[in-house]
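Morning F.,

Quick status update on the modeling queue. The single chain you submitted on Monday has been processed. Sequence for confirmation:
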Amino acid sequence: MNFLLKQRLLEKIATQIFFIPLYLYSSLIFSQSNYQQVDSLLSISKKESKNFQFEKSISISRKALYTAKKTSYKKGICESYYNIAYDLCDMGKYDESFRYINIIEKNYSHIIKENLDLNINLTDLKGRNYLALGFTDKAKKEFRKELILADLHKNKEQVYKDRLYAYVQLHASSKEADSSYYYLCKTLKYRNKIRDKKDFYFIYASFADYHIGETKSFDSAFYYNNESLKIGLKFNSPYLYVTYIQKAQILFLQKKYNESLKYAQIGLKKSVEKNRTEQVLAALKLIADNHHFLKNSMEELKYRNKYIHINDSMTVARNIGKQMYTNSVINEKELDVSASKTLFYKTLLLFIFIIILGILLFYYSIKKMEKKKKNIIDTKEKEVNSLRSKLEEDFYDELVTLAQNNSPEFLYRTKELYPQFFEKLLQLEPNLKTSELTFCSYLKLNYPTKEIAKYTFVTPKAIQNRKNRLRKRLNIPTDEDIYTWINKL
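Structure tokens below.
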């Protein structure tokens, strides 16, 4: 009997030894299969989002989220939440977008720290939501953070792209014209560093917006709009509706109402196809305004009513988002008050706990100090790299200040920053005077006519005459923008 019992026991142990590794292996294969399924769904979701199919993209992301949660695939969970939040923002549902962002930040902060791309994308998305709701200071804070995070990339091309995009966002969130133009000019130093020129589609469109709103130089606006349109058509950009609506706006301001109406209609059609509510509103307003000046009363009323209906819906969505943000601030303050009441008791318990575990913590503290020293060394290296970058930017900022004060040092400092530029100028025309070189420096910094006139205490007409004389001296083609020609040197 004892022999039979021993035999059965041995058979049971042998069976477990065989099946346990098999079970663990099959579980691993199953998890990896689910991870791949989640990644595949997220990839499809992003493609749908790029095609402006936001509802479909959200549906696919929800499937990915469900599968990721089943296998505790935290990276997949975070990216699913992010995709949903991103699409909701593009749909104008900012309150819902913030809700998903808060879930990620509250429950998966460690994943954000470990994943640089997710950290940058999440920061940018928060900034976009704040900007859409009118919280420009909050938006600028996020975009400045995005600028810092961009430098952590090991790939230089990616650093330049992320910094370029952050500067565009800072331009969009700046209320003052000088500040807005400053950030736009920052983008130009990446023009020859980034191989993928399609990234400059929005840069040129932003320059066109600046000239429309600030300088009222419609020729410059038209030039940058055409450059943006060329890039958009060359790379088949999905954002061409932006350029068409912008062109319609420029033509409207030039009182070319029939041409403006044509491009506004194209922009409206493309905006509707891409589900871009903000651009649909802009196109509808332009169409109504054009019909007004063309005295087409019935058509004007038709498009004006469409505009009012959609705008009212968007206003409601923005107000809900603002209220949600306000409530979250109030809740945070209430939590702070509640936390302060229990601070004394927590401190006391912590003190007792430290006394009891003193010996163990002493050993742990030694290990922690060694790790801390290593972190300090790493941090110092990052600070040195950051300082180098800041010194370059401060040098540029100093140059801007000297230009605005018409300082005698302006030309000297410009030569230090752009030595090759002046060498090429003097190769073209060795007899250029100091005053002409100084004037070229202002053009190099992209200052418009009115600002150069202001800083050099002459009239805008005198500055325009200088431009004309300089064109002749340097043989600049009459059909080419002088700023573009200067910046190509």
